[in-house]
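Researcher: Good morning. I'm working through a list of sequences from a screen, and I'd like to move beyond sequence-only analysis. For each chain I'm collecting a predicted structure so we can compare shapes side by side. This is the next one on the list. No need for commentary yet; just the structure.
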Amino acid sequence: MKFNFKSSYLVLGAVVLIVLLLFGGRMFKILKPGEKAVIFKPYTTGLDKDNIFGEGFHIIAPWNELEVYNVREQQRDETMDVLDKNGLSVNVDVTVRFNPSYSKIGFLHEQFGVNFINVLVIPEVRSSVRQVAGRYTAEEIYSTKRAEVEQTIITETKKALSANFIDMRALLIRSINLPAQIKGAIENKLQQEQEALAYEFRLKREESEAERRRIEAEGIANYNRIIDASLTDAILTQRGIEATTSLAESPNSKVIVIGSGKDGLPIILGNN
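Model: Good morning. Structure tokens for this chain:
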């Protein structure tokens, strides 16, 4: 029987076509922008955690599996009820923005899988918020130490997620809500504290003004004592003579009575 190369090529082509039809979806993979993947080789080395597939076209063996991850920044909103230091319920709304660490996708897949948001991210966020809230009173969380509480939640959540191959971009506390009765009591207390501070400020201002006036009065009194001590009879007589001489030399009409004034000083009589 003569071998027919043409028929062989046709058979080979048919086999290749059948293989492509059956396994093409598993062999040819296209990763879109914002996607990365790791390969799982069930019959050889298992999960390859070190080699990360980037965006573009890839060919893999049909018996291997490519696990695709969205590595773009993602956002989740969470509303939760937590307990403060005294066991009072506080409602907190938070928003967390994150993405898987690009080079650690294999480790993330090994420990948490593609459902890592529900398995890892949300539980860690909730746990951090609860732990931090439990260290403060409702008043501190709501007002007096709110900035400190928020920063502590951000720091501890970021640390926990980073240890599990998640890069946290931001954590925003949208609102902190208390029961209406407790909220009203806290706001009333804060108002009274502000009024007390305002009164204390006015009191200190008045005390400062009184002290300023006392110092001013003491200065004037000291000045007068110094002047009185320096004005002897001789000096007063000398000053009177000098004044009389000066007035006598002026062009105005006047009458000067010598020796008739108090202490023997001249008396000056004139129209002006």
